[in-house]
Amino acid sequence: MVVAGALLGCVTGLLAGALGGYVDTVLTWLTNSILCFPAIMLAMAFVMALEPGVTAVVIGLAIHSFPWYMRTLRGEVLRISSLDFVKSAGAIGASRTRTLIHHILPHLISTIVLQMAAVFGASVLSLAALGFLGMGAQPPTAELGAMITDGQQFFLTGQWWLAAFPGLVLLVAVTLTTIVADRARELLDPRGEYVAAD
C-alpha cells in the first residue's frame, strides 16, 4: 500500500508541479477532497464496496496516502524549478520532459524515501485497526489486529498474552519504523529542509 500510494503520488505530484495551470488546480482539488476523509473511513468504504480482505484495504489506504506524496512533491518540484541550474537547462533548449526527468526527479529521491518511511507507520496502524474490526485480512491469513481481537476473549481465563503479544509486536514495529524514518531523515536531509506530511 505504501509503494502504490507513492507511485500514484509521485506521478500526480510531478504533473501538478511541472505543468501547473488547470492540471495543478484539478489535482490539488482532488487531493484536498480525498484528505477530507479519515484513512480508516475511506478504507472501510472500499471494504464495504468490494469485500473484506487485504486487497480492498490496500486500495483504500493507497488512495488516502497518495495526496501526502502529491502535496510534498508538488512543492519540491516548484522549489527546484526555481533554481538556477534548472532555469539554465531550459535556457539552452532542454525540453520540459527532459528537464523534469534528468534535472528535477533525481533531487526528489530523498524526499520520496522519507515520505514513504513517514507513511509506513501510519499505514501499519490503519491496517491493524481494520483487522481489529474484522475488515482486514481474513482467516486463515495472520494479521495483528485480528489476533488482538481473537485474544480478547481469553483475558478472563488468564491467557492475557494472546492479545498482549500481538499488540506489543505492533508497538515495536511502529516504533522501529519511526526510528528508521528519523535516522533516514538525518542521513538524506542533513540540513533539515524536509518536513514529512503525515
Secondary-structure map:
Layout: H1 2-19, H2 21-34, H3 39-49, H4 54-81, H5 84-91, H6 96-104, H7 109-132, H8 144-152, H9 161-188
Question: What would you note in describing this structure?
Answer:
- The chain is mainly α and 198 residues long.
- The chain has one domain (2-188): MetI-like (MetI-like fold, Orthogonal Bundle).
- Helices cover 75% and strands 0% of the residues.
- It is built from 9 helices and no strands.
- It has helices at residues 2-19, 21-34, 39-49, 54-81, 84-91, 96-104, 109-132, 144-152, 161-188.
- Helix 2 packs across helix 4 (54-81) and helix 3 (39-49) crosses helix 7.
- The longest helix is centred in the middle third of the chain and has 28 residues, at 54-81.
- The mean pLDDT is 79.
The level 1 CATH classification is Mainly Alpha
- Name the overall outline: elongated
CATH fold call: MetI-like fold
Q: How many structural domains in the coordinates? A: 1
Mean pLDDT: 79
Beta content comes to under 5%
CATH architecture: Orthogonal Bundle
N-to-C series of helices and strands: HHHHHHHHH
User: How far do the termini sit from each other?
Assistant: 15 Å
DSSP helical segment count: 9
- The number of strands is 0
Based on CA atoms alone, the radius of gyration comes out at 20 Å
Approximately how much helix is present in the residues?
over 70%
CATH superfamily: MetI-like
What class would the helix/strand composition place it in? mainly alpha
For the largest beta-sheet, the strand count, sense and barrel status come to: none
User: Which stretches are poorly predicted, pLDDT < 50 over at least 5 residues?
Assistant: none
